[in-house]
Here is the input.
Amino acid sequence: MIVADAVTGVDPLGFADAHLSAPARAVLVALRETLERDVAPLLVDAWETATMPTAILDALVPLDLMTPAGLDPAEADSSLFSGFRTYVLARTDASVATFYNAQAGLFRTAVRHGGSPAQAERWDAGIRSFRTRGAFALTEPDHGSDVARGLATTARREGDDWVIDGAKRWIGGAAGADLLAVFVRDTADGEVKAFLVPTGAEGVQITPITGKISLRPMQNAQIALRGVRVGDDARLARVNGWRDVAGLLRRMRSDVAWIATGLQAGALDAALAATTARTQFGRPVAGFQLVQEKLARMLGNLTASLG
Here is the structure.
């Protein structure tokens, strides 16, 4: 028997009940209800047009999912709560989860843990409320998996300023961002640094990538940086080498596993709905053993992934 759960959709072993507080579960229930009521109806057109409707962000921002009211701050900041938050988002749609996490995970982590305490305090409230939108710009046209050694975008010091030259690619949410967290190689010492670059700065050109098949509503972009000048206060103070970047990535990359698990839950939801609604030979196709075996395998994989 497949047991429905208010938080996860399918949770036969009660992982959410076992590991999250009652206030945390209430936040996720509210998120799930919002997704089903306000977001899911928009997704067919979003995938067809390869756009992220503004109504999706309008629905999610009021939930204040990064620091929910009534939730202990330590739990709100925990990887477990943020993981289940990502899971619930991805259960509805992978693009929505990626879109939200580009801000709540990638960009916020870069500023909070890559910036100085003063920088984090300056920017975090705006990031949480989406008044300040950002994008995490690490990957380059010729450097993805090998970006640690291959990072080609550079910054050079000129007086009190830094001048940035290079390109970034596959940067999610860049077209709607106010700031880019741009990772560069310092020409003076060869070490990796990071800067908060305004998207409106002279020399920044953002070009949306079209023709995508995967994650179509989540818009990605190519970014050209030609002689972009920023002050030293734009440099994220705690990024002084690749080791620091790797530390940021360790805080972020579990989101990918949570998204994959949420996708499994959404796929199982869809399969259950389809196989119980469709009738062949006088009964739902979910009543046939070959279909039941597939559903059971899906449930087993989801349960193992959650565990």
